[in-house]
Write a structure and sequence with these properties.
The structure is a single chain. The chain is α+β, with helices and mostly antiparallel strands and 387 residues long. It folds into two domains: 165 residues, no CATH class; 180 residues, Histidine kinase-like ATPase, C-terminal domain (Heat Shock Protein 90, 2-Layer Sandwich), CATH 3.30.565. Helix content is 63%, strand content 14%. A five-stranded mixed β-sheet has the order 2-4-5-7-6. The chain has a two-stranded antiparallel ribbon with strand order 1-3. A two-stranded antiparallel ribbon has the order 8-9. Helix 3 packs across helix 4 and helix 5 runs antiparallel to helix 6. The longest helix is centred in the middle third of the chain and has 80 residues. The protein is rod-shaped, with a radius of gyration of 37 Å. The C terminus is likely disordered.
Length: 387
Amino acid sequence: MNKDRSSDKKISWRKWLYIFGAWTATALFFASSFVLQNQISAQPISVWKAVSVQLASSYGWFVLMPVILWLANHYPLDRRGNLARSITANLIGGVALVLAHLAWDAFSQSFLGYRNRQFETYFSAYAFQFYLNFHWSCVVYLQINIILYGIRYYNKYRAGELRASKLEARLAQTRLKVLQMQLHPHFLFNTHNAIAELIHKNPDAAEKMVENLSDLLRMSLNKLNVEEISFQQELEFLNKYLEIEQTRFNDRLRIKKDIAPDTLDATVPNMILQPLVENAVKHGIAPLIEGGTIEIRSVRENGNLRVEIRDDGVGASGEIIDGIGISNTRTRLKQLYENAHEFRIESNKEKGMSVNLIVPFRRFEIKKGKSSVSEKQQKNENQNLDR
């Protein structure tokens, strides 16, 4: 609360400082014009007198600015409602402010000795100012309001853009969460089916798979509302999944990894690898009696994180059709990175398929209060499952 008030005060003081600077610049501009014009006069005025008179007049408008702002805010001409009331208030208020400023000019110019002619009374000096500058002062007042309305419309435009960007960001986050939630039941159904197959064939293996699934669910639930995690966390989750699949396939499923150490602290979408590896297991390795090998590689290159998942399974005989996991992966990557990523699924020259995922490399950090602790520092306390 105190921070918000302090911030508001800073903004308020800054706003009035800008207004003061604008009136000062205006005064200096017109002072320079008066000095040049009076060079051809029989009795030119001094630079100091021209500057002092213009500063006094401009600062008179600056003193009246709170009232001008109040009128513009309480009786705006661009708000639906009682337009006649707003017009009346602005006319009466505008004329009153112009007359007040003329009164100040009559006093300040007489005090500074700007006029060559002497006035017997203040009323005669004021009358002279009224006849000479009333219409010009009205134009100045009108210009002030035009500038204020221009600033107001600009602020409304910026506020609208900000609201639109926030809504777009919320929509993108909602889409990502929906896509991520779709992956959980899809993965659970497949794992449930695998456990059901092993219950009668190999009860011990089924029991071990249930234990691994419990660990996997615990890890998954802890990251349920998280969009991005470190690559090491993603690999830990993937390792648990692979333990389940290796329990199911025994020696038919072989895993090889080539993970570059400098990629472990990269930021990646949560649960981005599991559906890719599951796709390789289900469509590449499972149909083969002898099984096969899945290779997982990562490297940091050209400011990007590149992950490759390759299998030596049956491959694709025709057009590659995306399933739920692959389709969601494409959509999630598009939402997070737009065009700043690559995602390719292609057939290998010999046999099997390969998936290449390239995303911008960003170091993952965990923010704690005002400080941030790198995930790379935190992982030193944990066991690296790839070792």
